[in-house]
Amino acid sequence: MMKKIENNKQYEDALKRIDELLLLVDNDTKKDNPAFIELDQLSNFVADYEETYSPIEKPSLIDVIKLRMFEMNLSQKGLAELLEISNPRVSEYLKGKRDITLKIAKKLHQKLDIDADIILQS
């Protein structure tokens, strides 16, 4: 058994084997079953490989603001009111024409519950 996935061929082979094992393993399969053990190990190897070679990047602050606006059913005007700033200023932020100030960053964190790491990455 391999110790880790080291290249794309091994990665593709592992994905194929996982598909095969998923046909043999279900919620009732005992944890000491060889197919269960192999599936668990391969899944961990695949996750490690993907984390190293295909990491998921954090979304941009503008994307997160737009997502929160959608989730909260906020228009640009509604966001401006919530943040206590002008509608044109919100427009500048959303188009990336103006940097977010510390004051607005705090309001984004408090009122839209946007993670500080996302705010600070920009």
Distance between the termini: 43 Å
Q: Number of helix segments?
A: 7
What's the overall average pLDDT, rounded?
92
Global outline: elongated
Please give the CATH architecture of the largest domain: Orthogonal Bundle
Task: Tell me the domain tally.
Answer: 2
Q: SSE order, as H and E?
A: HHHHHHH
Uncertain segments: none
Q: Sheet with the most strands?
A: none
CATH fold category name of the largest domain: 434 Repressor (Amino-terminal Domain)
Question: What structural class results from the helix and strand content?
Answer: mainly alpha
Strand content: under 5%
Radius of gyration: 23 Å
What share of the residues lie within helices? 55-70%
Structure in words:
The protein has helices at residues 8-22, 34-53, 61-71, 76-83, 87-94, 102-112, 116-121. With 122 residues, it is an all-alpha fold. The protein folds into 2 domains: 8-53, no CATH class; 61-121, 434 Repressor (Amino-terminal Domain), CATH 1.10.260.40. The longest helix has 20 residues, at 34-53. The two termini are 43 Å apart.
Write the layout of secondary structure elements.
Layout: H1 8-22, H2 34-53, H3 61-71, H4 76-83, H5 87-94, H6 102-112, H7 116-121
TL;DR?
The chain has 122 residues and is mainly α.
